[in-house]
Recover the amino acids of this structure.
């Protein structure tokens, strides 16, 4: 009885592995290390190196480790770059998910928690996003995540697969000092690197219709996110019926200026961010409601913004 975590050596996946282990759900990691880091896999947790595109490998891993459920975190996660690499994005996120579902069906595994994304909404007309907000993805990445949700839905109809998809915006922080965000595209590592290089981070526009003039977005702590993945797995194990999708959102969000202020406080590096022109298409505010996840998946914001930044900074320094 164990749960396979695809992408379990990555930033989010490695936190999910620890959350599952804390719940006694016996994680098994599968990762091709294209962006994951082998040292993120805890000692004693089985590690299968390979891709979700390899169905025979998936079936062997499921069989050899007694897998009864899957948390599917693996995927190509760079929304901006996906515009330049659409075929690669679809191969990894759509074909890969289909192959995984085929392997699960072949081995009789009937439960899955899918790491989806708020990118399925695109740029919504409303400032607060609910699960019912219309889906209008604006990148191959967002489209691939929405198709992934459809694949789960259709497989549920066809085979009785029990599933849920967790959508979230910006994942930050660190739950362990040895786990850090190594993405070359995410805000926190980019700002940290700029500060370490003696450069001044940028704010794109300070004349938005928000309290301090900078964009407001949803930021959630990666350890809080992982708790809800484990809660979803536990409830599927119990035979409970879950919603098809949940937003893991803060409900109020933080501004870019607030993030920069917290960066200066956490790092001890005083700076005044450079104000650059607005980027086309950036809305004033996008924040997700997390009421349903709070009801069903033990979702809550357990960390302040300063705690998010401080934990990420300490992990980044430890990795240097």
């Amino acid at each position: 009885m164990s749960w396979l975590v695809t992408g379990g050596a990555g930033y989010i996946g490695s936190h999910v592995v620890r959350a599952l282990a804390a719940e006694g759900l016996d994680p098994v990691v599968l990762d091709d290390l294209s962006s994951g880091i082998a040292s993120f896999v805890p000692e004693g947790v089985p590690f299968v190196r390979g891709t979700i595109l390899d169905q025979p490998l998936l079936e062997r891993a499921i069989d050899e480790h007694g897998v009864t459920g899957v948390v599917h975190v693996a995927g190509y996660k760079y929304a901006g770059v996906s515009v330049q690499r659409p075929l690669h994005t679809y191969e990894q996120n759509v074909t890969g998910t289909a192959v995984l579902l085929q392997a699960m069906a072949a081995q009789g595994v009937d439960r899955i928690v899918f790491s989806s994304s708020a990118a399925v909404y695109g740029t919504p007309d409303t400032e607060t996003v609910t699960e019912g907000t219309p889906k209008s993805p604006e990148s191959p990445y967002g489209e691939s995540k929405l198709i992934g949700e459809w694949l789960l839905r259709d497989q549920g109809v066809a085979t009785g697969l029990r599933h849920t998809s967790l959508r979230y915006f910006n994942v930050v922080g660190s739950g362990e000092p040895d786990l850090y965000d190594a993405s070359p595209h995410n805000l926190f590592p980019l700002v940290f690197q700029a500060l370490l290089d003696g450069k001044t981070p940028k704010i794109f526009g300070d004349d938005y219709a928000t309290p301090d003039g900078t964009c407001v977005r949803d930021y959630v702590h990666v350890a809080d996110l992982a708790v809800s993945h484990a809660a979803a797995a536990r409830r599927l194990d119990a035979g409970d019926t879950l919603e098809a999708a949940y937003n893991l959102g803060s409900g109020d969000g933080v501004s870019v200026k607030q993030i920069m202020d917290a960066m200066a406080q956490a790092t001890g590096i005083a700076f005044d961010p450079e104000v650059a022109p607005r980027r086309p298409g950036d809305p004033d505010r996008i924040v997700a409601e997390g009421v349903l996840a709070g009801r069903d998946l033990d979702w809550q914001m357990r960390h302040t913004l300063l705690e998010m930044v401080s934990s990420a900074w300490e992990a980044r320094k430890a990795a240097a």
Summary: Residues 86-107 form the longest helix (22 residues). The CA atoms of residues 190 and 281 lie 21 Å apart. The chain has a mean pLDDT of 94. The two ends are 37 Å apart (CA to CA).
